[in-house]
């Protein structure tokens, strides 16, 4: 998300290129474009007004350093203010207190409450080492219980067998007693929703919250990031009734305009604690205002990328590849492991957006999905090779190519094309290893020599002019 907003900000900053210093006259046009970009992104108009005022005041104030590039100064000021309106820092659920921590998950229907409940349980179990109990209390939509149990089973998570014929507050109380008896650390309670805010829904959720008052529950509202200002209005209603402790933005991987992320904290005073970034149970991130501001302004988010890499990359595999490279060896097996690492990190575009300056390049290159499709074809070809062939591709002659083509459902020409590209890769990785030995640019965390093979802008590859949007393979190695 935020692609459109990022592009508009980039256009606005061009107004300061070549200027000797920041002045009221040369930032006026930039501020107008920033204001328009924010309003088009469905950011609350009061937030926009305060944001523009703060940026202008700081840009023209004494804090501006003379002799520093005016464009860079302005970007820094905008970055700091963006982070400020979204909150100063991440505020995760407080797990350090004594006793069981109940987490009440609320929101309207279709916002992703049940899915988030599953994602949060996995996050707390894997990363926080907590014993978690999932509790369905949606008495209006019985299928929600089945959905939550299915998610729990898929993650080997415990769930409470709620009696949906009773009142939700009684279910919550029973679940807490069960959790106490069985020594659970966290109880996640998935509540009912509606298509819109109504008195009955709010009354029921308030009763559940009140029944848990002695446990001082966390109350997290899940909001669809694609709904923009409507999400802000719903958050206000819930906060006024049940006193929210946090907001979760779902569908942050969509083409949402971003208004909710930039408005909710300022309008409601409630912090955004988590963002949901995909369909898989592992696709949940802590919300860091400063990091998101960096992504919007194409300054990257290297810290989050490193954290993703630490979670997704097998250190032993990375070490084995490094040892091979040190011996001047790069096998098809190594290449396959690199593709697996990339897959675990996310899509190509999501990875590149975390690298400073890559957002603008991606807008020029266009759609990278054809390149990802090509990698899938490569994976099928590799899976049709024997272990010996993956360790030494040079033994693959015509007869072996014919067998590999038949096994992978591809043509011999496509198999030959794969090996031609792999030879380029082998040469490039050798060059990267020499760079690293000589103190050159290091690779991505856990990925020897740069990790992301052949994408434009990566070290060790001869640079090409990026293709215009709609290029054959999205540019780079797959062109």
From TrEMBL:
For bias type Basic residues, the affected ranges are 462-471
Q: Which Pfam families match?
A: SRP54 (PF00448), SRP54_N (PF02881), SRP_SPB (PF02978)
Per UniProt, subunit arrangement is: Part of the signal recognition particle protein translocation system, which is composed of SRP and FtsY.
Main subcellular location of this protein, as a coarse class: cytoplasm
- What is one process in the GO biological process aspect for this record? SRP-dependent cotranslational protein targeting to membrane
One GO molecular-function annotation for this sequence? Answer: GTP binding
Q: What are the UniProt keywords, alphabetically?
A: Cytoplasm, GTP-binding, Hydrolase, Nucleotide-binding, Ribonucleoprotein, RNA-binding, Signal recognition particle
Please state the span of the N-terminal signal peptide per the UniProt entry. Answer: none
The segments labelled Disordered in the record are 454-479
* Residues reported to bind GTP: 107-114, 190-194, 250-253
Keyword RNA-binding attributed: yes
UniProt name for this protein = Signal recognition particle protein
Q: Any idea where this protein resides? A: Cytoplasm
According to its UniProt record, the EC number is 3.6.5.4
Q: Where is the SRP54-type proteins GTP-binding domain?
A: 271-284
About its domains, the entry says: Composed of three domains: the N-terminal N domain, which is responsible for interactions with the ribosome, the central G domain, which binds GTP, and the C-terminal M domain, which binds the RNA and the signal sequence of the RNC.
Catalysed reaction equations from the record: GTP + H2O = GDP + phosphate + H(+)
Its GO CC terms are: signal recognition particle
Task performed by this protein: Involved in targeting and insertion of nascent membrane proteins into the cytoplasmic membrane. Binds to the hydrophobic signal sequence of the ribosome-nascent chain (RNC) as it emerges from the ribosomes. The SRP-RNC complex is then targeted to the cytoplasmic membrane where it interacts with the SRP receptor FtsY.
Matching Gene3D superfamilies:
P-loop containing nucleotide triphosphate hydrolases, Signal recognition particle SRP54, nucleotide-binding domain, Signal recognition particle, SRP54 subunit, M-domain
Name the HAMAP family on file. Answer: SRP54
Q: Output the PROSITE patterns linked to this UniProt entry.
A: SRP54
Membership in a protein family:
Belongs to the GTP-binding SRP family. SRP54 subfamily.
């Amino acid at each position: 998300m935020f692609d459109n907003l990022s592009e508009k900000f980039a256009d606005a900053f061009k107004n300061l290129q070549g200027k000797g210093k920041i002045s009221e006259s040369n930032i006026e046009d930039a501020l107008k474009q920033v204001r328009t970009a924010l309003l088009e992104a469905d950011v609350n108009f009061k937030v926009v007004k305060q944001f523009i005022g703060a940026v202008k005041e700081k840009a023209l104030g004494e804090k501006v350093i003379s002799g520093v590039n005016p464009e860079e100064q302005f970007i820094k000021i905008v970055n700091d203010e963006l982070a400020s309106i979204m909150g100063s820092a991440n505020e995760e659920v407080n797990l350090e207190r004594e006793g069981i921590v109940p987490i009440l998950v609320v929101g309207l229907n279709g916002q992703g409450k049940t899915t988030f409940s599953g994602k949060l349980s996995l996050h707390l179990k894997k990363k926080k080492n907590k014993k978690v109990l999932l509790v369905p209390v949606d008495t209006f939509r019985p299928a929600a219980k089945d959905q939550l149990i299915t998610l729990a089973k898929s993650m080997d998570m415990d769930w409470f067998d709620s009696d949906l014929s009773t009142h939700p507050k009684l279910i919550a109380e029973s679940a807490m007693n069960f959790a106490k008896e069985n020594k659970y650390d966290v109880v996640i309670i998935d509540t009912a929703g509606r298509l819109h805010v109504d008195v009955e829904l709010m009354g029921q959720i308030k009763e559940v919250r009140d029944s848990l008052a002695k446990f001082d529950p966390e109350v997290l509202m899940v909001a669809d990031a694609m709904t923009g200002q409507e999400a802000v209005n719903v958050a206000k209603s819930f906060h006024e009734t049940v006193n929210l402790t946090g907001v979760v933005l779902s569908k942050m991987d969509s083409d949402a305009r971003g208004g909710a992320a930039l408005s909710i904290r300022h309008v409601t005073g409630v912090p955004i604690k988590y963002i949901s970034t995909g369909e898989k149970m592992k696709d949940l991130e802590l919300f860091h205002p400063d990091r998101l501001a960096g992504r919007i302004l194409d300054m990257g988010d290297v810290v989050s990328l490193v954290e993703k890499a630490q979670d997704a990359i097998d250190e032993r595999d990375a070490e084995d590849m490094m040892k091979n490279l040190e011996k001047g060896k790069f096998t098809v097996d190594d290449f396959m492991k690199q593709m697996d690492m990339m897959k675990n990190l996310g899509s190509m575009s999501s990875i590149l957006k975390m690298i400073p300056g890559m957002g603008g390049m991606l807008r020029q290159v266009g759609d990278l999905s054809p390149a990802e499709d090509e990698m899938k074809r490569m994976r099928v070809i590799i899976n049709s090779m024997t272990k010996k062939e993956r360790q030494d591709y040079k033994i693959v002659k015509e007869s072996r190519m014919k067998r590999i083509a038949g096994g992978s459902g591809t043509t011999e020409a496509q198999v030959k094309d794969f090996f031609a590209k792999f030879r380029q890769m082998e040469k490039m990785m050798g060059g990267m290893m020499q760079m690293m030995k000589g103190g050159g640019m290091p690779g991505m965390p856990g990925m020897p020599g740069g990790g992301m093979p052949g994408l434009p802008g990566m070290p060790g590859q001869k640079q090409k002019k990026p293709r215009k949007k709609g290029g054959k393979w999205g540019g780079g190695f797959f062109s």
